[in-house]
Amino acid sequence: MSRKPSKDSGGIFDIDDKDRQIAELQAKMTDEAFWQNPSAANHVVRNLKALKNISESWHKLERRLKETSELFHISGDEGEDFLVHLDVDLNALKEELDRLEFLTLFSGEYDANNAIVSINAGAGGTESCDWVSMLLRMYTRWAQGHGFEVTVTDILPGEEAGTKNVTVIVRGAYAYGYLRPEVGVHRLVRISPFDANKRRHTSFASVDVIPEFEGDVEVDIRPEDLRIDVYRAGGKGGQHVNTTDSAVRITHLPTGTVAQCQNERSQHQNKQVALGILKSRLYALKRREQDEKMSREHQEKRKIEWGSQIRSYVLHPYNLVKDHRTDYETGDANGVLDGKLDPFIEIYLRDMKTRRD
């Protein structure tokens, strides 16, 4: 059985601190002006939900452990049936403890936030564009399996097939904490469906993940530093989306940071979403410059080509997915592409925690 986390060990299992934070947030929600800022209010509600999930799970586990211990001490010689029942209870406790122990890996300042995920095609032409579409499906299936919401805010189709680049927002508790290990270049090896000679091709795509910042964040965005372009949205979305200049692209001129959105049906809605993404990207950029830890996670922008990949997905001449940072691998390539990413994420997070400790 995993080592029992200590209540006074700090981090996510500092339950007294979590209970104090819950009380503070609940008190804040009683303010008459609380809902006047919906974005900030929703941020508070999500934080409260995440904190209560941890606190309530911990207190429930403590009660169950105490009840099981008391039952064991008063049981006496109850026979084999009782031992089987006790074993079932202990296994259930272990599974819950393992789940809570896994949450200790989400110790980053922004791990509880939603995630903004961008996928971009690299070397490989049409092959890489198709690879971007495959990765989008993989992350969407993974997110659905966790009960997360996925919203495509911007997508640029490839010239012949697939997708050149796409940006999505993944909303759910600890979405950023889960997805931050996916940052880097992903490599695909397979027999090309676009090659009449059925030759093997290698494709590359890059994945970037930043936390979505909501509420009041310290980002100074002057209107004169922004260039706002509107254009006709492409791809799926219906007749209204495709025949009006509703898509919005916002460029922050001092940094060259760009955010765009074409998912919503009105130009105003697209502008608000794009501004939110831009704000998150600028805040993340600021934090990367100031915070040594975040800076290490994003210390270099590697070329999207051979030799820079963090993970390889091989579909020919054999099936294998290997993470080059942890050396974890599996032969269930189709399962991974269908969203079974948790082992890769967990092993990476545990490896990083071991290095920090």
TrEMBL record:
<dbReference type="InterPro" id="IPR045853">
    <property type="entry name" value="Pep_chain_release_fac_I_sf"/>
</dbReference>
<dbReference type="InterPro" id="IPR004374">
    <property type="entry name" value="PrfB"/>
</dbReference>
<dbReference type="Pfam" id="PF03462">
    <property type="entry name" value="PCRF"/>
</dbReference>
<dbReference type="InterPro" id="IPR000352">
    <property type="entry name" value="Pep_chain_release_fac_I"/>
</dbReference>
<keyword id="KW-0963">Cytoplasm</keyword>
<dbReference type="Pfam" id="PF00472">
    <property type="entry name" value="RF-1"/>
</dbReference>
<dbReference type="GO" id="GO:0005737">
    <property type="term" value="C:cytoplasm"/>
</dbReference>
<keyword id="KW-0648">Protein biosynthesis</keyword>
<comment type="similarity">
    <text>Belongs to the prokaryotic/mitochondrial release factor family.</text>
</comment>
<protein>
    <recommendedName>
        <fullName>Peptide chain release factor 2</fullName>
    </recommendedName>
</protein>
<keyword id="KW-0488">Methylation</keyword>
<feature type="modified residue" description="N5-methylglutamine">
    <location>
        <position position="239"/>
    </location>
</feature>
<feature type="domain" description="Prokaryotic-type class I peptide chain release factors">
    <location>
        <begin position="232"/>
        <end position="248"/>
    </location>
</feature>
<dbReference type="InterPro" id="IPR005139">
    <property type="entry name" value="PCRF"/>
</dbReference>
<dbReference type="GO" id="GO:0016149">
    <property type="term" value="F:translation release factor activity, codon specific"/>
</dbReference>
<comment type="function">
    <text>Peptide chain release factor 2 directs the termination of translation in response to the peptide chain termination codons UGA and UAA.</text>
</comment>
